[in-house]
Amino acid sequence: SRYIGKKSQERGVTIGFLWHFTKYFNCWEWTSHDVIRKIVKPLTEEKRCRFVELPEMKDHVGPASTFISYAQAGRWGDVMGAILDGGADLSRCVWLDVFAVRQYPSRCPDLDFASTIAHCSSFMVVCSARKEVEEMDIEYAMSDKTHLIPEHVRKMICFMRVWCLVEAQQACKMGIPYIMKCGSYALRDDGNVVFNENMEVLENMRYLVNVQKAEASVASDRERILQSIEADVGIDKLNSTIRGSIIGGWSGASNIASSLISCAACGDQDAVEVVLQDEGNIVIVAGKG
Q: Whole-model pTM?
């Protein structure tokens, strides 16, 4: 399992590649399902290989420092905006299932994400901001009425998907920096992308976190995963870790430094140096670890 996890972690892609890929295919508004169906599978169909194993990818692949967790029904542009936020080092590699996982049935499917995370040094959760969550009455959110959020929106919220919780469980157990990015991307006139964190969505989401209400397409998956979490870190610990990451994002959402701090937590050396110049940020960086 450790060998498999290490091999998987080595299938990271550079942030620079992600930036150019997304601009080239103009897939900002797509879901990752769309990216797989329209780009990844057609380009890998002949060899039935992972995208990172295409000959053209050899200069863009390397060991991932950050595991990216997100709901596949969310917007691809939001995931890209979150990864690039704060002037991320374009040469740094991140792990994204779209490129690292074989998208075809096999006797040994690439599903051991926990062992992949075990070899990464940070964990980022990306959640698309949705008006249905933003406009939810705070009293409903506080009384945990997740059923009032339409099903198609719940599918876009990572911690409401049980498979995303498996990933969160591993990051929680390891104690690595756990970064929550919730918001939406916007393209500037100069062609660059910005990520706008949404404080209202974060505010409601911290009350809506309830691991036991997470959903899965296959009921047996849900039961098995919840039992595993209960036996491992525990439901309450995972709920509090996810809430803590949301509160961290929420308290920093209006602070320009929060984007830099995220990059520092992911290991960008330039960001670390800038953050440490402000003594008030040292505690925050330490807290992320």
A: 0.81
C-alpha distances in angstroms, 187 versus 5, 68, 102, 145, 281? Answer: 35, 21, 31, 34, 29
Residue 121's alpha-carbon distances to 64, 89, 195, 206, 261, in angstroms, are 8, 15, 23, 25, 15
Per-10-residue mean pLDDT, the chain, length 289: 84 97 96 96 95 97 94 92 90 95 79 84 88 86 83 83 78 79 90 86 82 83 87 86 72 52 62 50 36
